[in-house]
Amino acid sequence: MGRLWLIEGLPGSRKSTFAERLQDKQNGKFYSEVDASHPVDVHDVYWVEEKPSTGRILDEIEKGWLVRYDGDEERIGTDVYELPFALHTRIMCERWRRYVQKLDRGEEDIIFECALLQNPFTIGMVAQDVPLADMEAYVQEVADILKPIDPMVVYLALDDVARIFPIVYDERPMGWQSGFVEYYTSGAYGVNHAHKGMAGTIEILVERQRRELELLKRLPLRHARIQNDNRHSFEELTNLLEEESIRTCKP
């Protein structure tokens, strides 16, 4: 029976590369966080209160519609990532419920990145600085929805964010560099805590990872934490898959 894998970690922890390697080893299906065909996530999707006449309707939810527009179409509504946190969480929890209800547990493994922890903490903490209890309640609700299908969470942790992130930063395109630091430091959390520039971005990333790892321990989901400062996660992946194979074969 196929398994749902949820790959988490900070930018630069090599989530995408890890997920792609997992896909190859398991002959599974990997949905990146920006994949337009993602069955749950909503990158570049808008929530519209009145039924739109343009765009492609993906779902009717929370007395509104989720819509994706082509490049030249006028966008109406609000990007789902920019909605007030309470509304965003209701929409996403319902997306997860519908996904689990429709899930066909065939032989193919399904792999998501960022969907369980990164997106809730980026929106809730970085962008809107909502109370930690609200973010944790949201992730716990998603975990409860997912528990019946027994997913596996893999967190690629960075012990030395201050050393690793600047390396990752230098490897990325210029547009990503300026946009990332601007997003992190101009969001509500960065402003409220006076975090600025690269140093401020690193402080936010360190706190985000600390919160995510603390919460992960309390979720009712199986998980593995892989320290990946030296990018050795692929060796750990082989061990993890062997352990999973042994576990699932036990009577």
TrEMBL record:
This is ATP-binding protein. It comes from the Bacteria. InterPro entries: P-loop_NTPase.
